[in-house]
Amino acid sequence: MSWITMTTGEPGWAAGVPNDVEMWRHELRRLGWAAGCAPALALVAAVAVVALTAGEGLERPQASLVLLTGLEALLPLAVAMAATSVVAAGRARELHLSLPTPYAMVLGRRLGLLAAATSAVAVVFTGAIWAAGLWSGPSLVASPLLWAPAVAWLGGLAVLVALVTRSLLLATTVAAGVWLAHQLFAASFAAHAWSRPLYLFPVSRLDAYPGWMTDRLVLTATVAPLAAGVLLLLRRPERMLTEEEA
Question: Where does the sequence pass through the membrane (predicted)?
Answer without folding.
Answer: 31-53, 65-90, 111-133, 145-164, 169-194, 214-234
